[in-house]
Design a protein that fits this description.
Length: 363
């Protein structure tokens, strides 16, 4: 899909960023173009360079080469103007545990230059948006892990940023909290023009992916949603989100995904286009014992990789080799004493793509 990225609606623009630590190329020629109203997911294994890229974008580290521009401001030459445009939530959000929720937000608000008549109404509005209004007087140290992440998001939003940079914000929290956190992120973007209406169905459509938007979540959870919306941006151009995540189900929620490996972005596209790279190349095998199934599958000449997905295996095969593998794998497994309950071609998921890209050599 051609995004037709133009300079007038690019909120994040990074060109050929490089950062070395000794002989380690932590970030190696990374370029990013992220539009208003877009959620961009940065994924990769530990040590791929995601956090260093984030730190270069927010000015916490100085790049050895390359440029980073946030909302038209060069992060190195116009640092304060650029920082006024974004909210940043690091992997380890630093809060003052002896202060209350509201006091923490006040600290970050005043540190960013908000006056007393500005920070209080904004803070109360944000706390309602993230669902912490009932806990504003609770000490931060007494919050659950999920609540602490929401407090981090609230602190990042207090200046009404146009760009939100989130570095693995849901790592270590439970699945329900991850879901809630993502609904907040999606709500932030959907309020700012990333959705349009399908004239035939009258349903909301994401203008990046073309997918219909699931509005049932808000209906099912009206007891948690507020009728008033949080005014995130200073204008109507929209907010953009750059989020790094180790979870492929979260990456699937993004408009575009960039896979990082060894400091480089080795693949970048919409989730659906990335999955399409492995169309007709993934088989699902269920049976027992699993170690026999894995051994026999790995031995097949046309099998590139075998990975466990719960109680079954995903088998990646070479291009146009699926039918050949399907025709001979069952008998090969049975000859080794294994049992095949199901063997079929399936649609690839982002985990399949992630594993394939992690194993590939890219120059």
């Amino acid at each position: 899909m051609n995004f037709n990225l133009t300079m007038n609606n690019l909120l994040i623009s990074a060109s050929n960023l490089k950062k070395h630590f000794g002989d380690t190329h932590a970030v190696d020629d990374v370029s990013l173009r992220i539009k208003a109203g877009e959620i961009y997911g940065l994924v990769g294994a530990d040590g791929a360079g995601k956090t260093t890229t984030m730190r270069l974008l927010v000015g916490a580290l100085k790049a050895d080469a390359g440029d980073a521009v946030i909302c038209g401001y060069d992060i190195n030459k116009q640092t304060e103007q650029a920082r006024a445009q974004f909210g940043y939530l690091s992997q380890r959000f630093s809060m003052y545990e002896d202060l209350t929720v509201l006091e923490n937000i006040r600290f970050f608000a005043e540190a960013r230059g908000l006056r007393s008549n500005e920070w209080l109404p904004r803070s109360l509005e944000i706390l309602e948006f993230v669902g912490l209004e009932k806990f504003k007087d609770r000490r931060a140290g007494q919050l659950s892990g999920g609540m602490k992440q929401k407090l981090g998001l609230a602190s990042a939003l207090v200046t009404k940023p146009r760009v939100l940079l989130l570095d693995e914000p849901t790592t270590g929290v439970d699945p329900v909290t991850r879901q809630d956190f993502w609904q907040l992120v999606i709500k932030l973007v959907s309020q700012d023009g990333s959705k349009q209406v399908d004239t035939e169905t009258s349903r909301q459509v994401d203008r990046y992916t073309g997918n219909h938007v699931d509005t049932d979540y808000a209906i099912r959870n009206t007891q948690h949603e507020k009728s008033n919306s949080y005014p995130v941006t200073r204008n109507t151009q929209g907010v953009s989100v750059l989020i790094s995540t180790p979870y492929m189900d979260e990456a699937s929620r993004c408009h575009r995904v960039g896979f990082m490996k060894s400091g480089k972005i080795i693949a970048e596209d919409t989730p659906s286009n990335l999955r399409a790279r492995l169309n007709n190349r993934v088989l699902e095998l269920r049976g027992s014992p699993l170690n026999v199934l894995r051994h026999v599958a790995n031995r097949d000449q046309d099998v590139e990789d075998v990975q466990a997905f719960g109680d079954r295996l995903h088998i990646r095969v070479g291009e146009r080799k699926a039918d050949d593998v399907l025709s001979r794998l069952k008998s090969a497994i049975r000859s080794e004493g294994g049992r095949v309950d199901e063997l079929r071609a399936v649609n690839p998921v982002l985990e399949d793509v992630f594993i394939a890209l992690s194993e590939s050599n890219h120059e």
